TrEMBL record:
GO molecular function: catalytic activity
Entry's Gene Ontology BP terms: base-excision repair
Superkingdom of origin: Bacteria
Taxonomic source organism: Rubellimicrobium rubrum
Lineage: Bacteria, Pseudomonadati, Pseudomonadota, Alphaproteobacteria, Rhodobacterales
Protein name, per record: Fe-S cluster assembly protein HesB
PANTHER family, alphabetized: HYPOTHETICAL BASE EXCISION DNA REPAIR PROTEIN (EUROFUNG), PTHR47203
Pfam families xrefs: HhH-GPD
Region of interest (Disordered), ranges: 236-257
HhH-GPD domain span: 47-209
UniProt xrefs under InterPro entries: DNA_glycosylase (IPR011257), HhH-GPD_domain (IPR003265), HhH_base_excis_C (IPR023170)
Length: 257
């Protein structure tokens, strides 16, 4: 029990140090990249899963242009929706899934809107969303953090996840899903939405620009001394590298212009 607490406190301290150094490197606060209402952010997030940013952005724009409101998208022929989002990966799965999620929201809430989430706690809002099949922790956190709700929820994308594994913030065997709660538990409870957003953003940026999947630039990494993977690589050690997991395509959460 005491060992567990010591380990948690150690990882909390490391997370804070990593945050501070990466914020220095990448310039916090980071500007929000979206300003969508929560329902639109949800649709955008669902489209973007394992899809290049420009393709999911184009599909979202096509839906906006073709349907006067999201009720019309919900009630449209699925084949038609699939046609409009044909540029994303797996449009044949995403079209019916998005419509099923929109119907589920309507059934549970009475109307097709998510603005009411603002009155719930972050945990309540995430639980409400994740009770709908097809919405996982990454999507629920994205809706709360990236939308106009601007709540303190931590999404974890593939870059963020890789840096967290390599630095030992989470075990190398931990998948993205459970990493959401594990990584959120390392952050100070009193951090506001911007600080939590910054944390996600700087780890994501570090994964994109320095700690890349195939060739991490440990020699110029500002958190090298905190990272067992980097230290092992620099010293030439053959110790197992937790980065050697299956490659993950482009980050599905970030749709920067
Ligand atoms: S030291 Fe290397 S492995 Fe560790 S975070 Fe930096 S770039 Fe990634």
């Amino acid at each position: 029990m005491g060992q567990d607490r010591t380990d948690l406190e150690s990882r909390q301290g490391k997370a804070l140090e990593i945050h501070q150094r990466l914020c220095q490197a990448y310039g916090c606060p980071i500007a929000y990249f979206h300003d969508l209402d929560p329902l639109s952010e949800l649709i955008s997030s669902l489209l973007s899963h394992r899809t290049r940013n420009q393709d999911s952005g184009r599909a979202f724009k096509a839906l906006r242009e073709h349907y006067p409101d999201w009720e019309a998208l919900r009630d449209a022929p699925t084949a038609e929706v699939q046609h409009h989002i044909r540029g994303v990966t797996w449009p044949e799965q995403k079209a019916p899934r998005i419509q099923a999620i929109l119907r589920a929201i309507t059934d549970r809430h009475g109307v097709l809107a998510l603005d009411f989430l603002e009155s719930l706690s972050v945990q309540e809002a995430r639980s409400w969303l994740e009770a709908i099949p097809g919405i996982g922790p990454k999507t629920s956190a994205a809706v709360l953090s990236f939308s106009q709700l601007r709540r303190a929820a931590l999404p974890v994308d593939s870059h963020h996840h890789r840096v967290a594994q390599r630095t030992g913030l989470i075990p190398s065997s931990m998948n993205v899903g459970p990493s959401h709660s594990a990584l959120a538990a390392l952050l100070p409870a009193d951090w506001d939405a911007q600080a939590v957003y910054d944390h996600h953003e700087v780890l994501m940026l570090h994964g994109q620009r320095c700690c890349t999947f195939r060739d991490p630039a440990c020699g110029r990494c500002v958190i090298l001394d905190l990272c067992p993977t980097g230290l092992a690589r620099i010293s030439g050690s053959r110790s197992p590298d937790p980065s050697v997991l299956e490659p993950v395509p482009d980050n599905p959460l970030h749709r920067r212009p």
